[in-house]
Amino acid sequence: MSRLIVVSNRVTPPSAAGEESVGGLAMALAAALREYSGLWFGWSGKTTPEFTGQLAMQKIDGVTVATVDLEDADVDEYYNGYANKTLWPLFHYRQDLTAYDRAYGEGYERVNSRFAETLRPLIEPDDLVWIHDYHLIPLARELRQLGVKNRIGFFLHVPWPAYQLITTLPGHKQLVQAMFDYDLVGFQTAEYQQAFEEYVQNEASGEQTSPGLWKAYGRTVQVGAYPIGIDAADFAKLVRSSRAVRMNDLMRACTVFRRLIVGVDRLDYSKGLEERFMGFERLLADSPDIRREVLMLQIAPVSREGVEAYQEIRARLDALSGRINGEFADIDWAPFRYVNKNYRRDELAGIYRAASVGLVTPLRDGMNLVAKEFVAAQDPEDPGVLILSRFAGAARQLTEALLVNPNSPEELAEALKRALAMERPERIRRWSALFDNVQREDVTAWRDAFVADLSEMGAQATALASGRMAS
Prior knowledge:
The chain is an alpha/beta fold. Helix content is 47%, strand content 18%. It folds into two domains: 4-229 and 443-458, Glycogen Phosphorylase B (Rossmann fold, 3-Layer(aba) Sandwich); 232-440, Glycogen Phosphorylase B (Rossmann fold).
């Protein structure tokens, strides 16, 4: 079996990812690398006065981890700049927050070139290279220019925006053209795949030679939808762990005689937190009879503090959470707890288990693994209800959740009322269907489907080359 090389912007060692990371990407990649004797390459998260390309290597759980430091200018222009001020808001349909700066684009190209030069000596002839997410779209192009002939796949964890939106990006043609240096490009949903195909057809005069196979820019790329999942078996173990049980007991003690509504999200404007807060506020305003029977807990670890848009949303959420408690709290009760703290996965499992409602309402999301973790953590005999944004990729799979438009406070409030009043038989029926999907379409299915397709493409290429030589 070929060795698997995984490349991502940041590298979280597998042992750490299994215990503490809230991010779905780190958990999914750690699970994938446990199956293959491979290598994980990316940025260390540290800076250096001058880029040298020097690698830090370590071996953890059979996985070789290779990291490289970046310069401060690289972080400002590539990571905080082009990745998080340009591509992230644009791909999440926030054109109003998208910043276009030539220096950002130059930093993005520079870091991808540096990654390629540092990674190139580590690649062996039979390796499969699997590159992840919007930070590294041009990386295959850079590797090809260095002579890499290996099969290279790319997976986009965030949404691919509509054709009309991506064309607002200066340099969009070069960005999409770089994706044709991959052999296989994967998206979270068929919707995102179709948006990419629409761009290729209309903007690049691309031709679909067979289902999922597109020819443009003188190259051919296979595209497909590969919905990411969680390690369902591992998460089931976490629910029974001592930390999870203690957290579950703590939450039940804190919410005695009350129903817990929980949200867990990185603090980001794409997660619909302001809209969610206002939906809960509307519930309290419209339903005075149940005010003292509910408690909402929102966990939102702070991220990307160097980006102004994140500083602004934090200030707005602080004010909004204070307003809700100021209006509805009493001397012995407050309806809302807002916590900017990171919790371990096993602790989150205990929190999910204690909740009557999971509120997962992003304005736009590639998949959203919190929704799947909430489902996996529930008590089969008395499960909670998942309320899920129809604009999350997970909504295509988790159809038995209560699907909502997160932009409507009224719709959110109605969904909360319905979830809180739902009888146990309906809750069990809905949860059973959700859990079946979470188990079937887990991280192993995602990994195996993508790697198998990438491997198969290599076998086909070898067969074609052999046929040409024979003729």
